[in-house]
Write a structure and sequence with these properties.
The protein is an alpha/beta fold. It has eleven helices and 18 strands. It binds threonylcarbamoyladenylate (TXA) and magnesium ion.
Length: about 375
């Protein structure tokens, strides 16, 4: 199948492209589109056969449920039931935006979309193309990130094309890269205790202002705590992996971290490997080894987040065999960054203060 790419520079002028996308959605086909977090691969969330096409195009295990995207905050009521009184507070504060809310599902949502679970994940994205596509389609749109399963999420239309060319009929190209750059925060509101299943741009602190105490699922804090079984099915899969091997170096002192990475980089280079170093503005000038990419300044975690996936793909395009990455502060916004980084590394984290190497049981790579 040929994958058509429609550039959308102006949402009003390029309505024809949106209408073409919406027509495909109504026919039960898939369409990739930008959101403020990452690109999604959408299909009619109420049509099980259409949703199956998403799983097929991505090569996604079908026990991993999808997020249902809506264009009007009140539309969650038709897709969920037994909704806690706190949910409208969250909706008012964070929608449209990078917060996905898990609720008990209504029978209208087919089992393909929720992978047979009795809950449904809902989000109203904050991107004009996404909202316009949903409105024009006249149906909620189920959409996981538009990458081949297990690969870093796409933040540009080119990333989507690199992964899914020939496997999907259409990409709506939003031109500018996705602003947030990491997927939404997934918050389980289906039980008594609000629980973060996946960290994202909406931080634990922001949620606590609205909800009081919020629990963070044990799987989020891996590799700090690897003992609990994952509650969000997506957590158990190896995620975000570029084709290169990733190793993370964790330490309190920046100087020691840089020193260790330089030493290891030289060793890999001596062995004939092409080395990439994932650095920050504060450290990048200190490296003389390999290909150095800075994620941005440590003082601006939102910038680090926005650049992470594109940087992993850039190393890969430049033929890097091994990526040595610096640990960054894992509090608040940093939690989402480190959650994705440790997964990209298959949980391969080296603590440089204690020279022990953790390769935990969560590692399913290679
Ligand atoms: O920002 C985002 O969330 C992007 C854009 C496209 O909206 N979408 C996205 O979808 O990241 P995906 O499929 O890559 O990640 C959805 C995550 C998975 O970890 C999945 O297991 C979890 O949400 N999830 C979906 N439905 C769930 C449910 N009913 N219960 C628990 N976890 C669920
Ligand atoms: Mg994904």
């Amino acid at each position: 199948m040929e994958t058509k790419v429609y550039k959308i520079e102006n949402i009003n002028r390029d309505q024809k492209a949106i209408r073409a996308g919406a027509a495909l959605i109504r026919q039960g086909q898939t369409v990739a589109f930008p959101t403020e977090t990452v690109y999604g691969l959408g299909a009619n969330a109420l049509d099980g056969q259409a949703v199956n096409r998403i799983f097929k195009a991505k090569g996604r295990p079908n026990d991993n449920p999808l997020i249902v995207h809506i264009a009007d905050p009140s539309h969650f009521e038709a897709l969920a039931h037994d909704v806690s009184a706190r949910v409208p507070l969250l909706v008012r504060e964070f929608w449209p935006g990078p917060l996905t809310i898990i609720l008990k599902k209504s029978p209208r949502v087919p089992p393909e979309t929720t992978a047979g679970l009795d809950t449904v994940a809902l989000r109203m994205p904050n991107h004009p193309i996404a909202l316009s596509l949903i409105q024009e389609s006249g149906t909620p749109i189920a959409a996981p990130s538009a990458n081949r399963s297990g690969r870093p999420s796409p933040t540009t239309a080119q990333h989507v094309l690199d992964d899914l060319s020939g496997r999907i009929p259409m990409i709506l190209d939003g031109i500018t890269p996705c602003r947030v750059g990491l997927e939404s925060t997934v918050l389980d509101m289906s039980g008594d205790i609000p629980t973060i299943l996946r960290p994202g741009g909406i931080t634990p602190g922001m949620l606590e202002k609205v909800l009081g105490h919020v629990k963070i699922d044990g799987a989020v804090l891996e590799p700090l705590d690897m003992r609990q079984a994952p509650r969000s099915p997506g957590m158990k899969y190896n995620h975000y992996s570029p084709r290169a091997h990733v190793i993370i170096y964790r330490g309190q002192a920046l100087g020691a971290m840089v020193g260790e990475i330089k030493k290891i980089a030289a060793k890999y280079q001596y062995d004939g490997q092409k080395v990439g170093i994932l650095a920050t503005d504060e450290t990048m000038d200190r490296y003389r080894e390999g290909l150095v990419i800075s994620l941005g300044s440590r003082r601006e975690p939102a910038v680090l987040a926005a650049n992470l996936f594109a940087s992993l793909r850039e190393f890969e395009n430049r033929g890097v065999d091994v990526i040595l990455a610096e640990w960054v502060d894992e509090r608040e916004e940093g939690l989402a960054i480190m959650n994705r980084m440790v997964r990209a590394a298959g949980f391969h984290v080296v603590d440089i203060e204690k020279p022990v190497e953790h390769k935990t049981k969560g590692d399913k790579r290679k």
